[in-house]
Protein: MarR family transcriptional regulator
Amino acid sequence: MSSAEATPGHLVWRLAMKWRTAVDRALDPLGLTHAQYVVLASLYGMNRPSQRELADWAGLEPLYVSKLARALEASGLISRTRDTVDTRTVRLELTARGRSTVEPAIALVSSLLDRLLAPLGDRTAAFSRELVDLLAVPLD
Structure:
């Protein structure tokens, strides 16, 4: 490994790309991409968030979430409805079809994550805390 490849930034990039590629391949038989999965899996654990709330939680650009949400709605996996109080706000919710699609996807991705983290053993929780700390560092 060259010195350029050994930098933490490069290693984070490579791990992120490895993860995204693996998730895309695992979800392909279900007809989902990694980005679509992020939206669906997030909705599985949230109660009718706004597109903005989901974007903030998932770390995605709001415009990208809007585009993904429109496509997922067209596929019958989510519903998008205007908020009754603030009509500028769009609320997202899984449909029954979305729920039945995302449940096996969550199991697949969870299994994949277990395989990825297996080398850490009992250090996994500490690693997760360190990732949270790094994500909290403002870079803009």
Remarks:
- Residues 113 and 119 are 11 Å apart (CA to CA).
